[in-house]
Every structure is written in C-alpha cells, then in structure tokens.
Inverse folding.
C-alpha cells in the first residue's frame, strides 16, 4: 500500500516548501489589501450544500451519515461555510467584512489535469459592500498575487462578465427562476462539451432552437460597446460593467481584464459581475473564478447581505508556474549543522545546538556517530549555511570550530560567543 486514495496528493518535504511559498504569496496579496484570515471545520452539515439547487457541486459531495445518524459532508467549497459564519454573527460583525482563507476542499469528480478530488483553495471575500468597488478590489488582489509570482498581463487575462447581463438576455426569452439557474450551469460547460451536447441539454430544459441561437449569439459578444448596443443604453448590467472597468483602470490594471460574455460561472448563487482568470495560451483550465453573490444568505434562511469573492485553487497555478519556469528552488532553510566528533561529545553537541537555537538559528544536529565526509555531504545536501564542529581538543577549552560552507572559511569561536 504505497498509493493514497485516488485523486489525493502526498506532499513530501520538497513539495511542502513550494506549497508554503505559494501560500505565503496568497497571504501577502490578501493582507496587503486589508483582509483578515479565518477558518472553519472541513466537515459541515450536508444541507448547507444541498439547499442550493441547479449545481453539479451537489452531485460531487463526499457525504455520509455520522455515528449520530446526521447527514454531513466534507466541504466542496468555502463560501457556504463563510455564509454560515456571517449569519451566526449577523448584526454584530462590523461591515464591510474583508476575510480570506486557504482551506482544503473535497469534490468527488473525475480526476483530470489541474483537478483532483482534494485541493487547497485561496478564498477572498468582501461582505457588506454593494458597489462594484468591492469587485474591483478583488481584481486588484489577483493582479498583485500574479505579479508577486512573476506573471504579467502578457501571461494571463481576467475575463469579466455579469449574471445581470444573462438575466436581461434570458429574460427576453422568458427564461427565469430555476430554468435560469439550470441554463447558467449548462452554459458554464460550453468550453468543456461539444456544441451538440450543449444544444441537447438546453433542449431538455425546454429551450427551442431559436432560443439556443440567441444564447450563442450573445456569447459571441466580445466588447462593452457591442454589449451596450445589444442591451441598450438603459441596461443596468452594461452600466455596472462599464463602472467596474473604469475602477479597474484607476488601479492601473486595465491590461489585465477583458469583457467576455461567455464567462457564466456555474454556481446558482451568483447575482452580478463574474470573472475567471485564464492563461492567454489557453492550454489550461480556469486558474480561478468568482463573482458577486448578494442573495446567498437568503437561500440559507438568513437576511441577504451583499457579497463578492473568488476561489483560487492551488493546482492549475502550479502547472502554469512550472511551465514558465517560475517555481523557486527552495532549500530546507537550515542555518547550522552541529556535529560532535565521537559519542563522548554527543552531550556537548546538544548543548551547542541548544545555544544556537536559543539565538534564533535553525539547527540540524547530527544524532549518530558519522564520519566527517558524511557530515560535509549532509550539510551540502540540505544547503546549510555553516558547519559547527565540536571537537575534543577545542571543546576542552570551551571552543567550537565554525566553517562557512559558501566560502570555506573556518574560525574558532568560544561557546559563550555563539
């Protein structure tokens, strides 16, 4: 038994170093914009997810009955947990809420490139802000992160649309309520399924060929000017998107974003601007996605509160960074390797290691009786800065030898001066 459960991953130390580097970039981008970190249990009541209808996610739950005969599920996403937490302190939390997290999420689905059955997902959300200023702030967070890992607008594009645009277009076709949500789920698959499969699924929910053609024409719109022409100057959706693009321009990030009517997002709870980030080459699936979900709390039995946010998985971005040679080569980060020459100096070596650690050094103590050749190879392998040698004659006088491994320089230092 050397393999884990299908769709899951092991993180060996070298993998953890890179994962921690990535997570630190997530933390930094969120903190630089005034967000605070939160967390919640990985196990939630199943009802938290099944109360939302018209989404594939309800078919992808790792759900079961616990020993108290309660229906529970591993979280497939973080937003419902966040909504539950906000509801629990409704009227108490100062607004706006600007929170982020990096939870592990679970979905039982077909494994493929960039998608496992477990992944970590950076979530950044703003609650209690009605205007598109909050959506523009999220785009700024994304751009800051991308720049911090060496990516630019030449590598990526953040494609933006709005569910309000869809509501206006589909509303003219008489599509609303549950049918609207179902249509959005199908449209979100248009880059994953062949056209005939999409047409079949739309027909199954009652859309005739004329409606399908109208939807396809709408998805071909690729600019805000054309959108305004199609929807009319009085369109609330078009006005909102123009405002959002203007605010993003104020951040100096206009080259990062593009209007794309085909961005739909499959989750039923989206209500306004939606966006996805993609590599410009089109080789990978969406790197991240999100949007406004002002009515989510209402579906869970609470009082609605305006909200917007995004989810950003760890798998696709790692593929992109690797393909562009942007993943760092990280060492273990050990400052000193301490070696006592002979079993009789084991205690002295521990005393030296303890002294160094108390001064904030990262110390790897050689625990066994090894030859000096092995110690040097070991120190080189873990990229230690120094080798600290406890040797019989020197230690008798309270002295240790320190070798700077980058230069080869050696010096004698008293124990008190370590």
């Amino acid at each position: 038994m050397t393999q884990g459960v299908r769709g899951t991953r092991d993180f060996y130390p070298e993998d953890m170093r890179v994962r921690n580097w990535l997570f630190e970039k997530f933390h930094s981008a969120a903190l630089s914009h005034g967000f605070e970190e939160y967390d919640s249990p990985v196990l939630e009541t199943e009802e938290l997810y099944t109360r939302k209808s018209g989404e594939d996610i309800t078919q992808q739950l790792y759900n079961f009955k616990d020993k108290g005969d309660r229906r529970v599920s591993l979280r497939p996403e973080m937003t419902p947990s966040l909504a539950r937490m906000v509801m629990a302190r409704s009227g108490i939390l100062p607004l706006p809420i600007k929170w982020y997290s990096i939870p592990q999420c679970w979905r039982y689905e077909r494994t493929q490139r960039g998608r496992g059955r477990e992944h970590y997902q950076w979530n950044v959300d703003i609650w209690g802000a009605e205007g598109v200023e909050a959506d523009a702030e999220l785009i700024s967070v994304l751009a800051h992160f991308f720049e911090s890992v060496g990516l630019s607008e030449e590598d990526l594009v953040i494609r933006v649309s709005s569910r309000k645009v869809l509501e206006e277009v589909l509303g003219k076709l008489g599509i609303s309520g549950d049918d609207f949500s179902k249509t959005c789920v199908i449209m979100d698959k248009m880059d994953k399924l062949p056209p005939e499969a999409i047409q079949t699924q739309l027909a199954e929910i009652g859309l005739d060929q004329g409606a399908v053609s109208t939807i396809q024409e709408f998805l071909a719109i690729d600019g805000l000017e054309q959108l305004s022409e199609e929807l009319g100057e009085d369109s609330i959706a078009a006005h909102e998107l123009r405002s959002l693009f203007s605010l993003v321009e104020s951040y100096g990030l206009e080259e990062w974003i593009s209007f794309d009517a085909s961005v739909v997002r499959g989750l039923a709870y989206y209500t306004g601007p939606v966006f996805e980030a993609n590599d410009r080459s089109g080789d990978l699936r969406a790197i991240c996605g999100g949007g406004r979900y002002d009515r989510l709390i209402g579906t869970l039995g609470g009082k609605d509160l305006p909200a917007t946010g995004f989810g950003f998985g760890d798998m696709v971005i790692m593929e992109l960074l690797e393909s562009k040679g942007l993943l760092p080569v990280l060492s273990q980060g050990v400052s000193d390797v301490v070696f006592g020459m002979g079993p009789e100096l084991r205690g002295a070596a521990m005393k030296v290691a303890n002294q160094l650690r108390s001064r904030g050094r990262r110390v790897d103590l050689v625990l066994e009786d090894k030859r000096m050749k092995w110690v040097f190879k070991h120190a080189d392998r873990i990229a230690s800065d120094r080798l600290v040698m406890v040797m019989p004659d020197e230690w008798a006088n309270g002295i240790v030898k320190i070798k700077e491994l980058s230069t080869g320089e050696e010096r004698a230092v008293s124990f008190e001066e370590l």
Q: What stands out?
A: Residues 336-417 form a domain with the Rossmann fold fold (CATH 3.40.50.800). The chain has two domains: 13-323, 336-417. Residues 13-31 form the longest helix (19 residues).
